[in-house]
Amino acid sequence: MTNLLSQLKQHSLIVADTGDFESIRKYQPRDATTNPSLLLKAAQMPEYQEVVQRVLVETKRESPQASKNLEVALDKLSVAFGLEILKIVPHRVSTEVDARLSFDAEASVAKARTLIGYYEKAGISRERILIKLASTWEGILAAKQLTRDGIRCNLTLLFSFAQAVACAEAGVQLISPFVGRILDWHKKSTGRADYPPAEDPGVLSVTRIYNYYKKYGYTTEVMGASFRNVGEIIELAGSDLLTISPVLLEELQKSNGTVTRKLSPAKAAESAEPKISLDEKSFRWLHNEDQMATEKLSDGIRLFAADNIKLENYIAQKLQ
């Protein structure tokens, strides 16, 4: 009997949710994704100090303005880790825009173009890069503009159906609904210790989004993210992609059993979900009506911003 990970790969594309190169080599995912928290952790690991030092040297050599050195170094560091990951994965890496730009569409577009510019200077085509943006209204607007420019985007921190619909209407490449964080909120809100995988609120949210996209012919890819347990992952077999931490990848690889495809275009066609269209006002209202999504989006932006600041402080000390 083959392990759960091998079977899962028959139904969904597997993405490594880590900045650790060795973990990526071990589990052989097609794609990899990073975020500020993962970059902060990786940048402090002894085995990656050569990457950090190389970025610092390049920054001091190429950036004539000392006041700009920190911003340049952080951008270059994100890309440097992305370049190392692309030596391992065959397809794409996601690189995140600073969470503090989540409510500034123009600045998000500018930062995305800077990151893509560094990748292209290193000889990497933009087809292999996904720019990660928070799924705020401004982030979705930025993604819409970037998509027109041929820059593909991964809309992250996605918790509500409103966010998913707006992303699809903007034509973005991919969304990352956060399964585990949705579960966390509901467990805290209800006082329940746990949910069976089929009743997991995060699983139900992704299933609804997947069915809506496939039923109405949207090409935006659905990538379940932020898992808390293997049960959530198995319940979403068939999702376009699944981004999974090394801990859960290891558990899947060591576990035997049967993985049955749960999500499919055929099942989605049976969905009774009506089609809707959202302008800014209706998006903000529908999203606001989802208390969980409103709170988790806000929390997520704050947490990623805090880790960005920690990474800034770490690199600033090294620049000195």
Task: State the main characteristics.
single chain; alpha/beta; 320 residues; eight-stranded parallel barrel; TIM Barrel; globular
Overview of this protein structure:
The protein is α/β, with parallel strands linked by helices and 320 residues long. It has a single domain (4-319), classed as Aldolase class I (TIM Barrel, Alpha-Beta Barrel), CATH 3.20.20.70. The chain is 55% helix and 11% strand. The protein has 15 helices and eight strands. It has helices at 4-8, 21-27, 36-43, 49-62, 69-86, 105-121, 137-148, 161-170, 179-190, 201-215, 230-235, 246-254, 265-268, 280-288, 291-319, and strands at residues 13-17, 31-33, 93-96, 129-134, 153-158, 174-177, 221-224, 241-244. It has an eight-stranded parallel beta barrel, surrounded by eight helices. β4 (129-134), α7 and β5 form a beta-alpha-beta unit. The mean pLDDT is 95.
N-to-C SSE string, H for helix and E for strand: HEHEHHHEHEHEHEHHEHEHHHH
Spatial sequence of strands, sheet with the most strands: 1-2-3-4-5-6-7-8
CATH superfamily: Aldolase class I
CATH architectural designation: Alpha-Beta Barrel
Q: How big is the Rg? A: 19 Å
Structural class: alpha/beta
Shape: globular
Strand content: 5-15%
How many extended strands? 8
CATH class (first level) name: Alpha Beta
Fraction of residues in helix? 40-55%
> Number of helix segments?
15
The average pLDDT value, as a whole number, equals 95
Instruction: Please indicate the count of domains.
Output: 1
Structure described in brief:
The chain has helices spanning 4-8, 21-27, 36-43, 49-62, 69-86, 105-121, 137-148, 161-170, 179-190, 201-215, 230-235, 246-254, 265-268, 280-288, 291-319, and strands spanning 13-17, 31-33, 93-96, 129-134, 153-158, 174-177, 221-224, 241-244. It has 320 residues and is α/β, with parallel strands linked by helices.
